[in-house]
Design brief:
The chain is an alpha+beta fold and about 280 residues long. It is built from six helices and nine strands. Among the domains are: about 110 residues, Ku70, Chain: A, Domain 2, CATH 2.40.290; about 80 residues, no CATH class.
Length: about 280
């Protein structure tokens, strides 16, 4: 098991359950450093004052909020302490809401909540209560000095905490101009639906891989062995303008794995229930 990022308790009502917070995601892409091209030596980046061009020591740095171009309000440690909420070690569940009521745009980073010693029975009890209720706990907690909104849900045998965005962090869709459905013709819609159905598949996350990372690692390993790696060229997206939408749909349908026959059959099939949001593996 990985080292806990945070230790505390889940709190709801008068109940407190000791838990540990563990990361639920891994980052595999290679990390690169900037090197001097002449001798491949690492390059250091200095903190330089834009006014006098001199390097600035860490002790001489302060934080500032740019309220207008080139104009700042300087913030002190006392200012940040005054703004800070009380540092607690609890995930405070405020409400339990229906899963389908939450817009996916609110969800950000997932973490596993793992029962700490002595909290196993209460953890299992809360997990099964949430599972049978069909609801998600909405909570607040403090991580790295900042307050976060979070969702607590059941996935398999695990309680998963997902950091959420606050409502004012989402861009209002009304600020964009999206096309209406008035110009969609039935024949085009039927053909598009057939194409969608011809590409229907069960969710299998293992089949989707990061090809860019794989290519990078092949090149890196080749360079370590003094070899030049030839990669297969990938076809870029077709960017031709859509002159005849129906013809484009027909071509796409004929090239899809299911082809026309499967698409035609699917048009008469009953609509399946939408899958639940974000299936993740249990701990």
């Amino acid at each position: 098991m990985t080292r806990a990022l945070w230790k505390g308790a889940i709190s709801f009502g008068l109940v407190n359950i000791p838990i540990e917070l563990h990361t639920a995601v891994r980052h595999h892409r290679p990390v690169f450093r900037m090197l001097h091209a002449r001798d491949a030596s690492p390059v250091k980046f200095e903190r330089v004052c834009v006014r006098d061009g001199q390097a600035v020591a860490w002790d001489d740095l302060v934080k500032g909020y740019e309220y207008a171009k080139g104009r700042f309000v300087v913030m002190t440690k006392d200012d940040f302490q005054a703004a800070a909420v009380e540092k607690t070690r609890t995930v405070d569940i405020l409400d339990f809401v229906k899963t389908e009521e939450i817009d996916d745009r609110f969800f950000e980073t997932p973490y596993y909540l793992v029962a700490a010693k002595g909290g196993e029975r209460a953890y299992a009890l809360l997990r099964e209560a949430i599972r049978e209720s069909g609801r998600i706990g909405i909570a607040t907690f403090i991580l790295r000095d900042a307050q976060h909104l979070a969702a607590v849900e059941v996935i398999g045998q695990a309680l998963v905490l997902s950091v959420m965005r606050f409502a004012d962090e989402l861009v209002d869709a009304a600020s964009f101009d999206f096309p209406g459905a008035a110009g969609v013709r039935k024949a085009e819609l039927d053909m598009a639906k057939a194409l969608v159905n011809s590409l229907a598949a069960d969710w299998d996350p293992a089949k989707y891989t990061d090809q860019y990372r794989e290519n990078l690692m092949r090149i890196i390993h080749g360079k370590l062995k003094g070899k030049h790696v030839e990669l297969e060229p990938t076809a870029g997206p077709h960017r031709a303008e859509v002159v005849d939408l129906m013809e484009r749909l027909r071509r796409s349908l004929s090239q899809s794995p299911g082809g026309r026959t499967r698409g035609a059959r699917s048009r008469g099939a009953r609509t399946r229930r939408a899958p639940k949001r974000r299936a993740k593996p249990a701990a």
